[in-house]
Specification:
The strands form nine sheets. Strands 2, 3, 9, 10, 15, 27, 28, 29, 30 and 32 form a ten-stranded mixed beta sheet that branches. Strands 4, 13, 14, 16, 22, 23 and 31 form a seven-stranded antiparallel beta sheet that branches. A three-stranded mixed beta sheet has the order 1-8-5. The chain is mainly beta and 456 residues long. The two termini are 32 Å apart. The longest helix is centred in the C-terminal third of the chain and has 11 residues. A hairpin with a 2-residue loop joins strand 9 and strand 10. The chain has one domain: Glycoside hydrolase, family 7, domain (1,4-Beta-D-Glucan Cellobiohydrolase I, Chain A). It contains seven helices and 32 strands.
């Protein structure tokens, strides 16, 4: 619902680039997935992950001078976007030492705060790779996506997000001649928040009108944002979880400026649906379903299944429903059912359900305006990239996920209560110290025909 990028990067080193540096070798950690047939037979696919460009060290092509330090550009090296792209190089990553990312037996663990030799790193975002130079493209109409997750070490204010975005397969390398780094180095990010903190967009540095953040030592915002369709399969911590499709009126990664970005008071005038249509069990009235000791017990690992149902049961049909199933302790657990007055007693997302929810909560229905599930299905048919991340929220402290939000509403107001966290929780300056050792672990990713990837 809010930016996953604006708060997270290296404190000391720079971040993002378009040329390729040679000071640190780039070796992608292994994270194999499985592809499953209708009969439930699964085969392994050799995939890896790469670190998003926004986290990487950005320095001069001929030396060690930072092009970006803290939350500011070196305006001598980066006088404008094109010059910066020519002068600056994006280097390889020390995944465990700098970023707290470790891969083991198909699992990927992301640590929240990592004290490295030269910097303190906050959070991370990685993408699944099909090869050294291309992202793995997921086409999930009439398919399901399954993964294991452990959020037991992810408290209030943090978000372990696993989601799909309609990025270019090569990170924009073919489209933009100034992008020499491509997918190998994690370029080309976009999402429905149209984030302005991405340091390189369309092969150029986002230096124009760059404004350092007032409450984040690492982030700032430039003139441009980068937009695309987004399917939030999983945004969660130990308290709350949300499943949320977001749609845009544009296809693929698109640079925005002005009203099209939907910033501030123009939130509902932009090309993307920033709110989405979210299914958060707590928000939908079932407060006993998800959490420590609850039906889905977040004190231990569990499996999350998301099914993309089409109107005619074919891979070329129109997306008509998104279903959620959990598996834990050998038991298949169907998603919780809506218990909100005015909303159908349902445990899945449909256009009709979204319309009822928006009305019941008094929310603006930009999801319907921008095409709803049919629009989301178009993106799923074209192909989307998997992002795996952990982040904190300098905008509203993640209260939209796990607390009462907006904070000026009573918790009894329909849609306001989203979890049990205090409205005073999630302040980044506090949790980056008190919850520094937090982490999330993802693994056992499977894709395949409906009901082929899981079982008791």
């Amino acid at each position: 619902m809010f930016s996953k990028t604006s708060l997270l990067s290296l404190l000391a080193a720079g971040a993002s680039a378009q040329q390729v540096g040679t000071l640190t070798s780039e070796t992608h950690p292994s994270m194999p997935i499985q592809s499953c047939s209708a009969a439930g037979s699964c085969t392994s696919v050799s995939t890896t992950v790469t670190m998003d460009a926004n986290w990487r060290w950005l320095h001069t092509t001929e030396g060690y001078t930072n092009c970006y330090t803290g939350n500011e550009w070196n305006t001598t090296i980066c006088a404008d976007g094109a010059t910066c792209a020519a002068n600056c190089a994006l280097d390889g990553a020390d995944y465990s030492g700098t970023y707290g990312v470790t891969a083991s037996s198909g699992d990927l663990t992301l640590k929240f705060v990592t004290e490295g030799s030269y910097s303190t790193n906050i959070g991370s975002r990685l993408y699944l790779m099909a090869s050294e130079s291309k992202y793995y493209m997921f086409k999930l109409l009439n398919k399901e996506f399954t993964f294991d997750v452990d959020v037991s070490n992810l408290p209030c204010g943090l978000n372990g997000a696993l989601y799909l975005v309609e990025m270019d397969e090569d990170g924009g390398m073919a489209k933009y001649s100034t992008n020499k780094a491509g997918a190998k180095y994690g370029t080309g990010y976009c999402d429905t928040q149209c984030p302005h903190d991405i340091k390189f967009i369309d092969g150029e540095a986002n230096v124009e009108d760059w404004t350092p953040s007032s409450n984040d030592a690492n982030a700032g915002s430039g003139k441009y944002g980068t937009c695309c369709n987004e399917m939030d399969l999983w945004e969660a911590n130990v308290v709350s979880a949300a499943l949320t499709p977001h749609v845009c009126s544009v296809e693929g990664q698109t640079r925005c400026s002005g009203t099209d970005c939907g910033d501030g008071d123009e939130r509902y005038s932009g090309v993307c649906d920033k709110d989405g249509c979210d299914f958060n069990s707590y928000r939908m009235g079932d407060q006993s379903f998800y959490g420590k000791g609850k039906t889905v017990d977040t004190s231990s690992k569990f499996t999350v299944v998301t099914q993309f149902i089409t109107n005619d049961g074919t891979d070329s049909g129109t997306l008509s429903e998104i279903r959620r199933i959990y598996v834990q302790g050998g038991k298949v657990i169907q998603n919780s059912v809506s218990k909100v007055s005015g909303v159908t007693d349902s445990n899945s997302i449909t256009d009709a359900w979204c319309n009822e929810q928006k009305t019941a909560f008094g929310d603006t229905n930009s999801f319907e305006k921008l095409g709803g599930l049919a629009s989301m299905g178009g993106s799923l048919s074209r192909g989307m990239v998997l992002a795996l991340s952990v982040w904190d929220d300098h905008a509203v402290n993640m209260l939209w996920l796990d607390s009462t939000y907006p904070t000026d509403k009573d918790a009894t107001t329909p849609g306001a209560a989203r979890g049990t966290c205090e409205t005073s929780s999630g302040v980044p300056s506090e949790i980056e110290t008190s919850a520094a050792s937090s982490s999330v672990t993802y693994g056992n990713i499977k894709i395949g025909a409906i009901n082929s990837t899981y079982g008791a």
